[in-house]
Amino acid sequence: MHRTYSLRNSRAPTASQLQTPPPPSSTTRSKFFGKTGIASNFRKNAAGSFGPELARKLSALIKLEKDVLRSIEVVARERREVAKQLSIWGEENDDDVSDVSDKLGVLIYEIGELEDQFVDKYDQYRITLKTIRDIEASVQPSRDRKQKITDEIAHLKYKDPQSPKIPVLEQELVRAEAESLVAEAQLSNITREKLKAGFNYQFDALRELSEKFALIAGYGKALLELLDDSPVTPGETRPAYDGYEASKQIIIDAENALAAWTIDQAVVKPALSLHQTVDDVYDEGEEEWQGEEEEVVEEHAE
């Protein structure tokens, strides 16, 4: 085997990692891969059954996302095992199959590595949602207190309309409503802030993973071009394989492309029919046209 280059070796931080340092290891990681069936089923059945009522729905979502992350973690591990087995299988084949299968294994192993990194980045989204859940849980007591006082006043007005407790309870209700207003405003603000931040974590992670997958797929197809798949007749000998340097360079190019990628260089851009921001919607040609239009408007204004 001519294992001349490997992405599995220790590498310097990529441009993406320098731009946005990797997050801490995911809190969802399991000590035993694939052994979470019982725990997973319990979480699914128990999700949303405990804790303050206001926070139960989001608690259920957060617990289910934990299962998603553990599933990805298992897939990443299995992917790396597949890559190793592909290289082992190819080693006893002809030179071209041996070399190309080994290099394909390197690329597939890198896919597993990227999926493993994705788990940590995706977990940042889940952790951010926990902030909303915690605020919801803290707001529940103020809602409960306000409702309890309201119910007591209604009960007294029905049972004893002249009760001296009614004015006292009404004063307590005023204070409870004031406290509730503060808590509800805080919940409203934090919900929007953290929902936006959390899904930005998720979508940025998905964007990076998807575009790097696309890069690897392209270099993988380039490796396949080194295989001579023209049929041979019995007894005929194929030309000697001379693609070792080419396959090595493809792997080097793949690593360089993956290492240089940053979110600013993302290729796929959304094309929205509802324009919100120039950066997200317009391509370079449209931005130039918009700039020219603004200059015309300014000239007319002068």
UniProtKB/TrEMBL annotation:
Region (Disordered): 1-30, 282-302
GO biological process: eisosome assembly; endocytosis
Coiled coil: none
InterPro entries: AH/BAR_dom_sf, PIL1/LSP1
Transmembrane regions listed in the UniProt entry: none
Composition bias, Polar residues: 1-11
GO CC terms: eisosome filament; plasma membrane
Pfam families: Pil1
GO MF entries: lipid binding
UniProtKB keywords: Phosphoprotein
Taxonomy, superkingdom: Eukaryota
The protein's name: Sphingolipid long chain base-responsive protein PIL1
